[in-house]
Design brief:
Elements: H1 6-13, H2 15-33, E1 40-43, E2 46-53, H3 66-86, H4 90-113, E3 116-124, E4 127-128, H5 134-158
Antiparallel strand pairs: 1-2, 2-3, 3-4
Helix pairs in contact: 1-4, 2-4, 3-4, 4-5
Length: 159
């Protein structure tokens, strides 16, 4: 496999600060315009509801302390960053850029505030998905891109 071009890496690298900036801006807007725990209906299945998360995804590690969560997040981000920089495949780099942008958005929110601001509340028939934010959305889409790309690559390799 050929080495990835620096220009290709830099193009995907530019996506990361855009995700971080959009994430932090929407979190600041949510904190200034929403009241904690008071939903604002947007669509029949989506409310804006201000909440805070001291843990990681879905409140995991909520009781472990902020420093541990910051260290774990930084270590995982570093590993993904190294993978990103060495990755020759553009689609994989795109998925990694989405994951890194989201992870860093949550990292900087946690670093500056001690917790992560959540405000998107999806619900259907009384069931609510745990509240999340744009960083979480980027991480999820990035993970989906990575899984689909890996499955596609695996299928191509077998053929």
């Amino acid at each position: 496999m050929s080495e990835p071009s620096t220009a290709g890496r830099l193009a995907h690298l530019g996506l990361i600060p855009v995700i971080v900036a959009l994430d932090l801006a929407t979190k600041a807007l949510a904190r200034s315009e929403l009241r904690f725990g008071e939903p604002v209906g947007v669509l029949p299945f989506l409310d804006l509801t201000l909440g805070f998360n001291r843990g990681v995804a879905f409140g995991l590690l909520n009781d472990t302390g902020g420093l541990l969560v910051l260290v774990v997040t930084a270590a995982i981000s570093l590993m993904f960053g190294l993978w990103f920089w060495r990755e020759p495949r553009a689609v994989t780099r795109l998925g990694l850029a989405l994951v890194l942008g989201g992870a860093l958005g949550n990292f900087f929110d946690r670093l500056s505030r001690g917790d992560v601001t959540d405000f998107l509340d999806l619900h259907v028939s009384g069931y609510h998905w745990p509240a999340f934010n744009l960083a979480d959305t980027a991480i999820t889409f990035g993970a989906v891109v990575l899984v689909v790309d890996m499955l596609r690559t695996r299928k191509e390799t077998r053929s």
